[in-house]
Backbone:
């Protein structure tokens, strides 16, 4: 069974640009969550999607948004990039029942110049 | 505010040693605590704990949850260099995947 797939693996952008990251969950998983990982803050929850609806949201500004498609694939968008957005962005999928653990992809490393 | 605190922040041991990693949590409507191992890429799932006092084991790794004192420990016996990684714990509220992660314990095992 294929794992969680995130693309691209690396991205370099400049301040003010926008970026879209993609996540394909494990087959059959309907929940997709996004996290930002930085050395100082660790993993911080961005949002979770289930059946194309945002089910939970973390404490990030509105520049961070996401969506989920009918095949459960998800995208995350960050607009007006800031230097502080440089991080590893991780996607995790699960069947949808919070009694099941999440499984992570390898992440997208975003660098802002 | 919900939070998860891990200790120690880092640890250096020699092969064959036994280590204990700590995780304390304050999570509203707590349901489960998860442990992950992160090397260079994706955190890989180790354990999910929901019941107090029941030890979960996988090879040389084991973990237990104390819901009264709000903490969990992860034990690794007979450590190997391949155990070198960051170990993350996360607390999850009921009915949601809005997990709160600790900043991790960085374990280095020397040959």
Residues:
């Amino acid at each position: 069974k294929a794992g969680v797939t995130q693309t691209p693996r690396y991205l370099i952008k400049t301040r003010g640009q926008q970026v879209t990251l993609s996540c394909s969950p494990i087959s059959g998983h309907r929940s997709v969550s996004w996290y930002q990982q930085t050395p100082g803050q660790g993993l911080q929850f961005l949002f979770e999607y289930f059946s194309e609806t945002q089910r939970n949201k973390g404490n990030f500004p509105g520049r961070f948004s996401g969506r989920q498609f009918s095949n459960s694939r998800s995208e995350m968008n960050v607009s007006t990039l800031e230097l502080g957005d440089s991080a590893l962005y991780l996607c995790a999928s699960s069947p949808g029942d919070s009694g099941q653990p999440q499984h992570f992809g390898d992440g997208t490393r975003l660098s802002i110049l | 505010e919900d939070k998860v605190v891990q200790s120690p922040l880092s640890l250096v041991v020699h092969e064959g040693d036994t280590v204990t990693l700590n995780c304390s949590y304050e999570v509203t409507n707590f349901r489960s605590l998860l442990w992950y191992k992160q090397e260079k890429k994706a955190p890989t799932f180790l354990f999910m704990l929901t019941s107090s006092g029941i030890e979960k084991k996988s090879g040389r790794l084991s973990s237990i949850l104390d819901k009264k004192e709000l903490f969990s420990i992860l034990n690794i016996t007979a450590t190997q260099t391949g155990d070198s990684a960051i170990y993350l714990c996360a607390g999850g509220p009921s009915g949601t995947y809005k997990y709160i992660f600790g900043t991790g314990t960085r374990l280095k095992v020397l040959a």
Notes: The interface with chain A takes residues 31-32, 34, 36, 41-45, 48, 50, 88, 90, 92, 94-104 of chain B (CB under 8 Å).
